[in-house]
Design goal:
The chain is an all-alpha fold. The chain is about 85% helix and about 0% strand. It has two domains: about 80 residues, no CATH class; about 160 residues, no CATH class.
């Protein structure tokens, strides 16, 4: 941006409250259209490439995240109503939820423990330090809860947030391939697994499989947040024991 006129225009636009919000929505809609036209190919996940595109633009223009968030924070605000809205498909699928209570009761604690244990042990075997392991342990929980858990356990909340986002993106991208390899076709199992392992991004992917999958994923987000907050402080010393 060596041209003074272009630089001045960019400074003006970047400081406008709606600029980054508009740019975020345009990027997502364009990439989502490409995603749909290409048969919903997992590697073209619009969330993944929207993050990459916007992060690249911020880096290229020297724009700080605080400046970006000041304009795009309305999307962050909508996360609350969007989460509450997940109760609607859950209510519609309540009969199926009731029939699946036994399976869900077993899958929730086992899945919650497995998500934390796998992350800690793999990272530990690769040589990660203790603080990184603690920060990584709640990576399958939705960001606000994960950051709170990480802080209480001695981790780095900002590092946890990065792990959470990466987990969600990887889960959303890899879900179709994993389900196909394991021959999982039950929407209840698909949705609950995605919500438990990949939180909000996984839930968005689950709704692409169907409303039943989306409902079970939405339920898994809340339940896994509760289960992890209760179980992880008790189990983390055991998980970390081989690396201390």
């Amino acid at each position: 941006m060596s041209d003074p006129a272009i630089s001045g225009l960019w400074v003006y636009l970047a400081s406008a409250p709606l600029f980054w919000l508009t740019l975020t929505l345009i990027a997502y809609q364009a990439l989502n259209r490409l995603f749909v036209r290409c048969g919903r190919m997992p590697l073209l996940n619009p969330v993944l490439w929207s993050i990459a595109l916007l992060a690249g633009l911020l880096a290229a223009t020297g724009t700080g995240y605080d400046s970006y968030f000041a304009g795009a924070q309305f999307i962050h605000f909508l996360l609350g109503p969007a989460t509450v809205a997940l109760a609607v498909p859950l209510y519609r699928q309540f009969a199926q939820v009731r029939r699946s209570l036994t399976a869900l009761g077993l899958a929730l604690p086992l899945g919650s423990i497995a998500a934390a244990a796998a992350a800690v042990w793999i990272a530990g075997l690769l040589g990660a330090d203790l603080q990184t392991l603690v920060s990584l342990s709640p990576k399958s929980v939705t960001t606000p809860i994960a950051m709170g858990i990480s802080e209480k356990l001695g981790g780095v909340p900002s590092l946890t947030a990065v792990f959470v986002i990466l987990t969600g993106v990887i889960g959303a991208v890899a879900a179709s391939t994993i389900f196909r390899i394991l021959r999982i076709t039950d929407q209840r199992a698909m949705g609950f697994a995605l919500g438990l392992a990949a939180h909000g991004l996984g839930t968005a992917r689950a709704f692409q499989f169907g409303e039943t999958a989306g409902a079970f994923a939405g339920m898994a987000i809340g339940l896994n947040g509760l289960a992890t907050a209760v179980l992880l402080p008790v189990l983390l010393p055991i998980l970390l024991a081989p690396f201390v």
